[in-house]
Amino acid sequence: MHVFLTGAGGWIGRHTVDELLAHGHRVTALARTEAAAAALSAKGATALPGDLDDLEALRRGATSSDAVIHLANKHDWANPAESNRAERTAVQTIADSLTETDHPFLFASGLASLATGRASTENDLSLSHGPDSPRGGAENLAFEFVPRGVRVIAARFAPTVHGTGDHGFISYLVAAARRTGVSGYVGDGDTAWSAVHVHDAARLVRLALEGAPAGTRLHAVAETAVLSRDIAGAIGRSLNLPVKSIDPADAVEHFGFLGHLFGRDMTATSDITRTRFDWTPTGPTLLDDIAAGAYA
């Protein structure tokens, strides 16, 4: 299968490229810089110059391939409206390009918009609608293309996709601990995040691309709920720093933008995903990764 991929230079994207190539797929990936293009070429992939705002490059990549994986996101925490706009526009452009092809279109989504008051399941619908909502309401927008002949697949990733080299949320928590001299958790620390190792996440993306039907919502989740105080404790032990509760009113000052998220439950199960794709996570747990020095 010839796969067009955005976000190939990102954390999940790099591993997804490796996973696809290892299983005989041909990969063309969006590359913002010459260095990114060279890295793709060294792996055996083809670079397509462009970025998330280059809509013509997105169209060329989508129309010249057998499948699309969209993992890129601006992640502009200082200007989330711009990230939401770019995500919605990219999804719209790719889906328009794939109309009436029955080609797979797998895109990254998340768990934050599934406000259920419990661990979410794959049957829960996203509550984000419209361009002003998180991720620009891209998940619901994409599913509008299922009856228009696009094999839409939403990959809802755990808030932490961890492993050595991760520069996501856990790395921000580690940076806050180094900066303040304290590994903190918000309030009583009984909120929790789901987690998955990056190798397991990349394998699931490949399995879903190969066999998921249109309208699939999958959960890249290996651990349903890791308590925030346990995450803080593991970071504190790794850095030899004290662990303490941070008052919710001081969370943003302590953690930065992550203070709005670390005190929230973002949990989900993956029973349906595991059964449907015969997917069994085998990577280390989040706490094992932290203890082994993945973030030290």
UniProtKB/TrEMBL annotation:
This is Oxidoreductase. Residues 3-211 form the NAD-dependent epimerase/dehydratase domain. It comes from Actinoplanes couchii. InterPro entries: Epimerase_deHydtase (IPR001509), NAD(P)-bd_dom_sf (IPR036291), NAD(P)-dependent_oxidoreduct (IPR051783). It holds the Pfam family Epimerase.
